[in-house]
Design a protein that fits this description.
By secondary structure, this protein is α/β, with parallel strands linked by helices. The chain has 12 helices and 12 strands. The protein has a domain of 240 residues: 3-Layer(aba) Sandwich (Rossmann fold). Helix 1 links the parallel strand 1 and strand 2. The N and C termini lie far apart (59 Å).
Length: 360
């Protein structure tokens, strides 16, 4: 039986991954370590909370003693590190927590893995540490060169405090591989979308606002480009890298699906209006607001390496994935209500209130 220590398993991608793995494999155990920030929701994992193969540990990855105890108690074979502060806008407002969680938390986990797995002479048995990173560490691509893509050997050039913290963590993971021969992989994925994403990110925020006939705040000219990846395809990629990825390697995981932000917003308007048969959901809800500081223009991945080496490709066409995603949010209004109650309203008002007011 393989024991996976999944960190941040109550967040968006982490909870999709926990559910995916428990569905796919019988003979595994998942230990989910999560401190439960605003972005976490244990309801995502309700269907597995009584599964004997699933264990929840309420702890902070930065707490070395708690992590050491967790390693000692559960003896994980594999670490999959999702836990992070993940929202660029919040990193611009408050960079420090990003350095703390994303860098120091990763370092604490690396040290625990090294201590627990080392069997002498660079031998760590069959263990693996997988760092879930982001294409944002590569920086930004120009809009006028659509053939330019991020590749695994593209130099890291992060711009936001979020991507700087993720790049820093990547360097530590690589350093532990290079220096101590810790068995590592790094995956760098593009923007994920799908069920259980906190509505501070573009797609769930726009769905939530559209359904409530609230303004849809589009930053700048709306022409920034993101490469959208369906979360289930991402989970498959991580599983493949854990089981077949060559030690020490980085794998980019992209959706081959680049869209301007405004196109995403218009698709959401069209599909929400169609599904709900609601003509009040229309383009008049779009509200161009002040641009994000240092806003990366374009992200784009050529996922050639993971395709050639592991046979992975993004299976879900965007047209299918986005409709499934919208339908999921419409079918889970109670989930949305739960995560947007309390602190979310304050965040939303503090962050968007002024911007939307200025536009009026
Ligand atoms: P998320 O914000 O939805 O979830 C993060 C989870 O980590 C939450 O459950 C939170 O409680 C937990 N967490 C935060 N700090 C912690 C700490 N100190 N100790 C333990 N748990 C802690 O994030 P997500 O969108 O699911 O992203 C998961 C990972 O994937 C992150 O590392 C992120 O950088 C990376 N990533 C995400 C995307 C995306 O589109 N969402 C794209 C590229 C990379
Ligand atoms: P986001 O979902 O925050 O992901 P990231 O910044 O990590 O790529 O944003 C995706 C894109 O959408 C990004 O270019 C910023 C833009 N955006 C808006 O235009 N309005 C919004 O309200 C949000 C949250 C994002």
């Amino acid at each position: 039986m393989t024991t996976y220590l999944v960190t941040g398993g109550a967040g968006f991608i982490g909870s999709n991954f926990v559910l995916y793995m428990l569905e796919k494999y019988d003979d595994i155990r998942i230990v989910n370590v999560d401190v439960l920030t605003y972005a976490a929701n244990l309801e995502n994992l309700k269907s597995v909370e009584d599964d004997p193969r699933y264990i929840f540990v309420h702890a902070d990855i930065c707490d070395f003693a708690a992590m050491e105890k967790t390693f000692h108690t559960y003896q994980p074979d594999v670490v999959v590190n999702f836990a992070a502060e993940s929202h660029v806008d919040r990193s611009i407002a408050d960079p420090e927590i990003f350095a703390h969680t994303n860098v120091m938390g990763t370092l604490a986990l690396l040290n625990c893995a090294r201590n627990a797995w080392h069997q002498g002479d660079d031998d760590y048995g069959t263990h693996k540490f997988l760092q879930v990173s982001t294409d944002e560490v590569y920086g930004s691509l120009p809009l006028d060169d659509p053939e330019a893509f991020f590749r695994e050997d593209t130099p890291l050039c992060p711009h936001s405090p979020y991507s700087a913290s993720k790049a820093s963590a990547d360097f530590f993971v690589k350093a532990y591989g290079d220096t101590y021969k810790l068995p590592i992989n790094i995956t760098r994925c593009s923007n994920n979308y799908g069920p259980y994403q906190f509505p501070e990110k573009l797609i769930p925020l726009m769905i939530h606002n559209a359904v409530h006939h609230e303004p849809l705040p589009v930053y700048g000219d709306g022409l920034n480009v993101r490469d959208w990846l369906y979360v289930a395809d991402h989970c498959k990629a991580i599983d493949l890298v854990i089981n077949q990825g060559k030690l020490g390697e980085v794998y980019n995981v992209g959706g081959h699906n680049e869209r301007h932000n405004i196109e995403i917003v218009q698709t959401i308007i069209r599909e929400c209006s169609r599904i709900l048969d609601d003509p009040l959901i229309n383009d008049s809800l779009i509200c161009y607001v002040q641009d994000r500081k240092g806003h990366d223009r374009r992200y784009g991945i050529a996922p050639d390496k993971i395709k050639a080496d592991l046979g992975w490709y993004p299976e879900t066409p965007f047209e299918t994935g986005i409709v499934q995603t919208i339908q999921w949010y419409l079918d889970h209004q109670e989930w949305i209500e739960h995560v947007t109650s309390g602190a979310y309203k304050e965040y939303y008002q503090a962050f968007y209130g002024n911007k939307l007011e200025t536009e009026r």
